């Protein structure tokens, strides 16, 4: 069995080469923040209200959403990952605990680690338009958190663009005085944007909250994120989870690797990507009509 590399995937480079191989034009320009705000916790964590911000959709697996939304946390919601760019070759997204840590957060509340789980969770759209994320989605997200009296947030992305979206949202939350920690798997994207607190897990995309069907790893991952909320003393604080992926060690070499695509692969993946863009464009048009 091949030995897993200790170096994180450089998602910016990997996705640039992948989409160029599929025949798309100029590479995407990722966000970079010149200044990173930092908001300390307004009260001790054991008395704080902590909420989850997700990029998962409250619909079927083929759906995508385009507006920030909120849902109750009194019961487990029916959330799914619709993003085509998560690592579906090495993970299944069947265990919601890997991308939506509500159960782990409830256990932390029951143990007295936090004061309470926020009354609602919040959905943040995965938007390639950075201006839409910052000018439309982030203000809506901040307003909902303020309305619910949220002290701190856990932002859990899935695909590469998700990581950029939640990093931009974390900036808006910190500016509003709401402490934020990003729990993610794309180190280069989050650190390029710049966030106050980042918990990096070197896992396939779609597993930012822990390994699938491994409650202990999900609780440990959540605990590391809560430690960051409590312990960070300034912006750009990154903590790397010590946990390792227990599945196929070849996942890093195969994810979106243009060098491994056959001509038939390129045709099929280009067609699938174009079909997805057409559906998204139709939904956006219907929303603005």
Automatic annotation (TrEMBL):
Source organism per UniProt: Albidovulum aquaemixtae
| EC class | oxidoreductase
Q: What is its EC number?
A: 1.21.4.1
Q: Which protein is depicted?
A: D-proline reductase subunit gamma
GO molecular function terms attached to this record: D-proline reductase activity
Q: Which domain of life is it from?
A: Bacteria
The record's keywords, sorted A to Z, are: Oxidoreductase
